Amino acid sequence: MKNSVFIATSLDGFIADINGGIGWLDSIPEINKIDTGYTAFTSHIDALVMGRKTFETVLSFGIEWPYKMPVFVLSSTLKKVPSELKQKVFVINGNLIQILDQIHQQGFHQLYIDGGTLIQNFIREDLIDEITITIIPILLGAGIPLFGSHSKSLAFECVKTTLFIDKIVQNKFVRVRS
Amino acid sequence: MKNSVFIATSLDGFIADINGGIGWLDSIPEINKIDTGYTAFTSHIDALVMGRKTFETVLSFGIEWPYKMPVFVLSSTLKKVPSELKQKVFVINGNLIQILDQIHQQGFHQLYIDGGTLIQNFIREDLIDEITITIIPILLGAGIPLFGSHSKSLAFECVKTTLFIDKIVQNKFVRVRS
Predict the structure, then answer these.
(1) Domains parsed from chain B with CATH numbers
(2) Which residues contact A65 (CB under 8 A, 6 or more apart)?
(3) Alpha helix locations (H) across A5-110?
(4) Distance separating alpha carbons of residues A73 and A89, to the nearest angstrom
(5) Model-level pTM?
(6) Which of A87, A169, B26, B33 could share a disulfide with B158, CB 3.0–4.6 Å?
């Protein structure tokens, strides 16, 4: 069982600007032409777990549903999903241990954890095993940070680093539990 | 002329813990046995510029003065330095443009900018050309951040990445001015 994060941040560690915008991701237009490993990453993933806000953000794009894998949306308020997504999106709630139990019992063990709030909650309970961060090298100066506050320090190791088009770097970290 | 930063941060971007401590830098003891490029970096440096707090922190270590290069300490309150450092440490004050002028006029052009507050002030005025960050892969959860807030976003490029002992990653970014 493994919980993985695969995300882009600014050089100063933000996942969105101060208004929640991600237009700065396009500050290096070539990024859309290169493979930063998302397909390879998701090929090892059984299901995606996201928070309600991230789910609503994805819906707001008005594009075709972008995920082939089952998506679990963690929410205590969301009651239903658009009918065309009923076979693809499943609302769950409970504490993180409970929802992981539910997901594991359905046979999904390699999980992709997405969304700022949910990632921070997973980290706070030391439930993240792997974090791949693609750094878009821009200093935004303000925004929504990837990492939040927690009281216990957590040790990782960087196991891989990749430089793309001499501009963008991707670092992969794995949790070391002693 | 170039202003460079060479610094270590935690995975969540802190240069010191919440009490200003840096004991977590030793969370990977092997780091003291490897060359992460500090000597190569300083071989291209003419002088070091630091803030008063960083200067006082270095003095508080009670060790032999660790810098061979001239050190400029930016302070409006510090009046004198310990007598044994008089040939090595120079107090300057003024705004950043003024102090850079003073330093350049003395023939020092390749500058190493150090200390959390001073680095943030340099970035706020877009005066940093190069940032090398060695990421110690620990999530501290709280601390003193490397990057601060500013209103204008600044574009960089990652030009080099190096993985040390399959644990620690170092990313070098250079400012791109259009």
Answers:
(1) 2-16+27-175 (3.40.430.10)
(2) A58, A84, A85, A88
(3) 38-42, 52-60, 96-105
(4) 7
(5) 0.96
(6) A169
Distance from C-alpha of A63 to C-alpha of A51, rounded to nearest angstrom: 19
Tell me what pLDDT residue A178 has: 79
Distances (CA, A) of B140 to A50, B18, B27: 24, 9, 11
**Hey, which residues does A156 pair with through a beta bridge?**
A175
β-bridge partners, B124: none
| Residue A18 touches chain B, beta carbons under 8 Å | no
Please name the amino acid found at residue A97: I
84-143 of A, contacting B, C-beta below 8 A: 123, 131, 135, 137-142
Q: Does B27 touch chain A (CB under 8 A)?
A: yes
Q: Does A162 touch chain B (CB under 8 A)?
A: yes
Q: What is the Cα A158 distance to its own chain's centre? A: 18
Nearest-CA neighbor of A44 among A81, A10, A3? Answer: A3
Q: Is the pLDDT of residue B137 over 90?
A: yes
Residue A60 burial by Cβ neighbours in a 10 Å radius (0-12, 13-18, 19+): exposed
End-to-end CA distance of chain A: 17
Round to whole Å and give the CA distance between A123 and A101.
17
- Compute CA distances B172 → B16, B149, B150, whole Å: 20, 21, 21
Q: A150, A151, A157: which to substitute to probe chain B, counting the most B Cβ within 10 Å?
A: A157
Bridge-based pairing state of the strands B138-139 and B130-136: unpaired
DSSP for residue B129 = -
Residue B79 pLDDT greater than 90, yes or no? no
Contact B173, A156 (CB under 8 A): no
Residue A61: the pLDDT is 87
Would you say the ipTM is above 0.90?
A: yes
